């Protein structure tokens, strides 16, 4: 059977509805199958969701991390996929210093800068609305997408402006077994243009196409640290499945995109001033809720360079 013939039978056999999501109980596994929960000794952990999202208590991000603290925070990041810190009155340089414990920082030529090229500053007003209210994974148009991001809220609207993250390992675990089998070995093309064309000048986009040509990534990525399989396609940057008829590819991608919409796989974070989120870009998608206009929302983000998905 050719690649472009394999998806429809799987959908029929598993009775996936038109919306792409099956009802009923979910497999909600926070850790790899063979892993046991371990206590944290250097800070408190307050879970916000069953599989994703936890607040870290008792860590001051203005202070340098010891190797032991960095190791425990990394374990928390891998376990919870996104970790949150409240009341962190830190500078942009201290934010960068924290992120560098996980690797070199990357720059993004498509987004507004903060006090350095490594900082993206999102100033959202009624005149300058945000376009991040779509489920996405940061910079998958790069051959080596970001490992993760550290986002700090500088100014918080009085109502709204939450961010939602989805655990894409849980999304993969809950796919019908025959759909999971058919995804093995598939690759998809990622391109920066669909993600930025709504709010960028066409001449600017054209000038960047040689620097950022489309790239291929596996549809199912294996996390380099946990070994878990995660869905690695997203609505902002994934354009089509390699070697598949375009109509069939579109159908499959629409089905995979909506797996991030399942509330059981999500955590929703209500921001407060100087709150910080650190998420694993290899394991999650996120969505910035755009419900606060005409109030102002200002955030600063740094991104950590990653490796090539496999």
UniProtKB/TrEMBL annotation:
Extent of the signal sequence: none
UniProt keyword Mitochondrion present: no
Superkingdom assignment: Bacteria
A GO-annotated cellular component: cytoplasm
Domain (TauD/TfdA-like): residue spans on this chain: 45-301
Family: Belongs to the TfdA dioxygenase family.
Protein name: Taurine dioxygenase
Source organism per UniProt: Amycolatopsis acidicola
């Amino acid at each position: 059977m050719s690649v472009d013939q394999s998806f429809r039978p799987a959908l029929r056999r598993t009775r996936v509805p038109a919306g792409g999501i099956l009802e009923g109980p979910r497999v909600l596994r926070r850790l790899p199958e063979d892993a046991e929960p371990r206590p944290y000794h250097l800070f408190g952990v307050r879970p916000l969701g069953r599989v994703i999202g936890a607040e870290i208590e008792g860590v001051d991000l203005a202070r340098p991390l010891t190797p032991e603290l960095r190791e425990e925070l990394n374990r928390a990041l891998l376990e919870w996929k996104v970790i949150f810190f409240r009341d962190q009155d830190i500078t942009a340089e201290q934010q960068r210093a924290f992120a560098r414990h996980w690797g070199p920082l990357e720059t993004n030529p498509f987004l507004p800068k903060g006090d350095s090229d490594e900082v993206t500053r999102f100033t959202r007003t009624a005149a300058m609305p945000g376009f991040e209210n779509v489920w996405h994974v940061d910079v998958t148009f790069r051959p080596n997408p970001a490992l993760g991001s550290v986002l700090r809220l500088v100014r918080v609207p009085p109502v709204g402006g939450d961010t939602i993250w989805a655990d894409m390992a849980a999304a993969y675990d809950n796919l019908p077994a025959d759909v999971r089998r058919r995804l093995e070995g598939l690759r998809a093309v990622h391109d920066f243009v669909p993600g930025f064309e709504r709010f960028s000048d066409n001449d600017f986009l054209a000038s960047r196409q040689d620097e950022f040509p489309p790239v291929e990534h596996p549809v199912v990525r294996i996390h380099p640290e946990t070994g878990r399989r995660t869905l690695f396609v997203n609505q902002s940057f994934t354009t089509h499945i390699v070697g598949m008829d375009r109509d069939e590819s579109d159908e499959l991608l629409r089905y995979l995109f909506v797996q991030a919409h399942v509330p059981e796989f999500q955590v929703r974070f209500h921001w407060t001033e100087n709150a910080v989120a650190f998420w694993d870009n290899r394991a999650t998608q996120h969505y910035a809720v755009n419900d606060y206009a005409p109030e102002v929302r200002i955030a600063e983000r740094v991104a950590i360079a990653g490796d090539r998905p496999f």
